[in-house]
Amino acid sequence: MEELAKIRVGISIGDLNGIGGEVILKTFEDSRMTDFCTPIIFASNKTISKFKNDLKINISYNGIKEVQKAIAGKINVVNAWTETPNINYGQATEESGKYALKSLRTAVNALKNNEIDLLVTAPINKKNIQTKDFNFPGHTDYLASELEGESLMFMVTDNLRIGLLTDHLAVKDVPEAITPELIRNKIRIMENTLKMDFGIRKPKIALLGINPHSGDNGVIGKEDDEVLKPVIRELSDDGHLVYGPYAADSFFGSEGYKSFDAILAAYHDQGLIPFKTLSFGKGVNFTAGLSKVRTSPDHGTAYEIAGKGKADPASFKEAVFMAISIFRKRKEFQKLMKNPLQKQKMKR
């Protein structure tokens, strides 16, 4: 327990008018959560106090000006701002976007400076967070610009892992964006994260087709035959366990996904619709491939229920558990890689 208590879980508050504050506080209302981690929320005392009072959530917390003042095993709130923002539950306002960005940036800076060990992000509104300095379609792209490595949007539960070749991209732009180089890069990132972050020695990966029925041998589009299949053959010849392309419409209904360690989908909805159908409320969005660990719940701001006390914290809680698990596995992997004797044992 002493080792786990040292894990400092940084948390960005997300859109103040959404359910982020509620799912965060409900997660840590369970006092057992602080037995194995130190949560550090980037917001302000007044903001957290308002969430507490409005939603009648009974927790106590330690307000601090600097991350270094966090108390291990307690809920800590870093005052990322001193003013009192207006909170209008269910409304997408410019002000709530401004403070979501302020929280995120403060948390990411702490992550880069090793003041926190990992980051769990509450949902943002991708439109109202935009500024001239923040022009990203979501967390994933922003974090990729701030942290070392190449990112992969990876949706994860205990028995299902789906990565995306393209994520927040218009469907009309998907075929042109999928190139042999992109496929190789995403497969490489996926293989590395499965080994390093999930402890899978020889990952087996399925690649979903771009077109209906994977193109039906060129009858419904040529991208699967001309782009996907040659790269899959090349990777297979090099010893990678990569298979496909599989027709996405039947792959999940037939439970074909259970034969693989991970699936790589061509575009956002192709991967996220089956993922959320099979695991909604327990799924986690993990930004794989970066130098630091970041997870988030599998839902958005849910304005329609914000401020009503109806939000389910299950996915956010899973995001905290997943981040801690990945952080520990990555540390173990890095330790093994530094030990030549252990490296030899892993290769056998």
Short description:
The chain has 348 residues and is of the alpha/beta class. It contains twelve helices and twelve strands.
Could you please describe the fold and organization of this structure?
It is a single chain. The protein is α/β, with parallel strands linked by helices. The protein contains 12 helices and 12 strands.
Number of strands: 12
Radius of gyration: 21 Å
For the largest sheet, list the strands in their spatial order. 3-4-2-1-5-12-11-6-7-10-8-9
Taken as a percent bin, the fraction of beta residues is 15-25%
Spans of at least 5 consecutive residues with low confidence: 1-5
Mean pLDDT: 92
Q: Which structural class fits the helix and strand makeup?
A: alpha/beta
| Major sheet characteristics | 12 strands, mixed
Rough shape? globular
- In whole angstroms, the N-to-C terminal distance is 32 Å
Question: Helices and strands, in N-to-C order?
Answer: HEHEHEEHEHEEHHEHEHEHEEHH
> Into which percent range does the helicity of residues fall?
25-40%
The tally of helices reads: 12
